[in-house]
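Why predict the complex rather than its parts? Because the way molecules touch one another can change local conformation, and only a joint prediction can capture that. The input here totals 866 residues.
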Amino acid sequence: MSNPPVLEFRGVTKRFGTLTANDDVSLTLQQGEVLALLGENGAGKTTLMNILFGHYQADEGDILVDGEVLPSGSTQAAINAGIGMVHQHFTLADNLTVLENITLGTESLWSWRQDQANSRKKLAAMISDYGLVVDPDAMVSELSVGERQRVEILKALYRDARILILDEPTAVLTPQESERLFATLKSITAKGLAIIFISHKLHEILAVSNRIAVLRRGAIVGTLETATSRREQLAELMVGRTVTRPKLSAIKPGDLVLEINDVSTGGTGATELKEIDLTLHQHEIVGIAGVAGNGQGTLADILSGLRSDFSGTIELNGQMLAAGNPRAIVASGVGRIPEDRHARGVVANMDIWENLISEDLRSDEICRAGFIIDGAGARVRAEKQIEDFDVRCKGPDAETRLLSGGNMQKLILARALSNTPSFILANQPVRGLDEGAIAYVQEQLLEARKRGAAILLISEDLDELMTLTDRIAVMSHGMLSSALPTGERSIAEIGLMMAGHGDQGGAKPGSLADGH
Amino acid sequence: MVIEPRETVSVWRAGLAPVWAILASLVICAVLISWAGASIPTAYSLLFKGAFGSAFALNETLTRSIPLIFTGLAVSVAFRAKFYNIGAEGQLYAGALAATFFGTGLVTLPPALMVPFLVIMGALAGGALLIVPVLLKTHLKVDEVVTTLLLNFVVLLVVSYLIEGPWKDPASLGWPQAASIIDEGVLPTLLAKGRLHFGLIIALFMAVIIWLMMRFTVQGYEIRAVGHNSRAAEFSGIKVNRTVIMTAMISGGLAGMAGVSETAGLKGYLTLDLSPGFGYTGIAVAMLAQLNPLAVVPAAIFLSAVYVGADAMSRAVNIPTYIADVLVGVSILAVLCSVMLSQYRIRWRA
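Output of the joint prediction:
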């Protein structure tokens, strides 16, 4: 620690009205290290990085790069000082090639020709130096999520970044892609670059960083050496209290609730379902593991009522599912937690009470005389749901877009679980949430299981599935394996099945698939 | 200078945005007026007097605001659902065609029934004109901006054909106009003097109805949900295509009523200059009102005042009436800027 830091925050404070987003933050970043910035959603991580990158100006304090004060409020100054940012949501042009995306904005507007030979050479050197393998001439639209992220990193490195900021980089990656990213980060720091790694996932931070700065409510509450940190200690620092994720207790499954029989959607694409069979019982959580884009979304759409173009049968409590009719499906006792809160879950520009009635808008409870919304009644119900599900907001009339991610998910839970559904479809219910909210969502699912609901949990997080499910089935290329009791297959086995190897589905009854 | 988003926008700040915009556009147009060689205070006081300065002026301003309230409502409903209906002009003429078809002798009812009958027929005709564009949008994803805009010209040519051909009034001494609306179908005037007619009452009534619908009904909820986030609307069970089609019918219907009101209320018969672009100005009205149905009324009266007042002003100080179009255009741009600024804050820093 004798070297002068490459980057230093000195007493950075940023206020938005009455809210203090960053409170007297002081931090140093040394050459060749990975500094993890740990904090829950809304703790001020992104605000701090936006100040560094010139999107916001700090109200107080300075940022020093190599001992020199960085002019505030200028993105160009930040880039010139060697700061590169890889945003959580990629900023790539789909219709351009990798090389074009990377050189975009780095060339003079006044030259007639692109100097492609030189940029190609520089890019090729970077690709081999850092092991960021990607085809320079591929169209970005054809790349996988992991490849796109490599392009983002290359883009920053191409601009001679010496300080790389990665904002929640693993949020969109599979476990394998995350591992690969961590290896890349090691090779980048080995070349003398410094990295700020923003995350709220403890195991990742412990795996990848040298030091950890924990941010809570805008202030640094601790800076620790990774080598001597423990997971529990970090969780407590981050949340401010002890958080334990709930665990499954043994309950005997009850009656059959959902029976999916030989469901196919036709076609051979990876997302098309191929002869899916699955049963769910009361008091049972069944997990579906798989890499994104292998048909989980199709199955979720069918069960949510968004698609009806399938063959085979789905029965809910002995009745045929009202395929293609979301309201009828909800009315028949299905609670749905969609994969994407913002795109599918809520209408952000409408009020909280309005989002809470969206699924039973035309029911007798909400709708008077066939077309008038009972606003007063809906608000009373909303107030109770807000209280029951601990949605932190100003009240039913607050705009939904002002909610944090966790509170938005609680709102969706309130809508999906309030009328005690017999079947719950939970598609990635904790994605992008902080520890406190994750524990809350999982507790609610377990509560519903205890009550007697059957729950289908679609997740890409194997740890989550291993701790939270009674049985696990694996989905790959539109085929679903049989659902075996959790623990009968190891994580390694499930990983292989996710990649399409080994014990594979389409498993007809009596086939050899499960070795019995 | 730094532009930062505000976390929350207070209601009164959002509401004041159009007022600031109108002030800004008056300042910008002052430059043009002085350039044209007129005194700015004289010109603006003449404009104000021309719009509100006498019973006659006020009467004209309100009369001219009637079609703008209808088309402004038509546009604001459609835009709420992100259905960009640029064809209110054509739908207005479709309504006028229906009023002429049914109102020149084909059907005769007592006035208390004849007027509502014509209004409903005009609304149906306006809505019918949108059937093809909206189905093209919902089923084939054809951009409605193009189809609705181009239909305006088609309708105008049809009107032109009819009033110069089969529907030409033999008593018109050769002028291209259709027969007069029968007395039972004519909208009564509201005052002893002036042209202000019953269409104003219908327009205000529709503004209240549309406001109530958007705010308190299932249909209004569905329109807003589809406009803000159609994927979430679909997930919650709203039939998105059906909602868009319904919105288009309401929008076209409102614009069609403007045509009935102008034909049966103001002119008495259909001509090719029935509307000097009320359909297009309706877009400006809706933007100025920020798509709020109640705010459409003052926005329509304001724009009507600008046009009526500019007529008077230009006659008095010899400035081209185009100043009115400039003022309207600038105020729309200013509204868009000020709405943006009401959501952001500018901070001045060294």
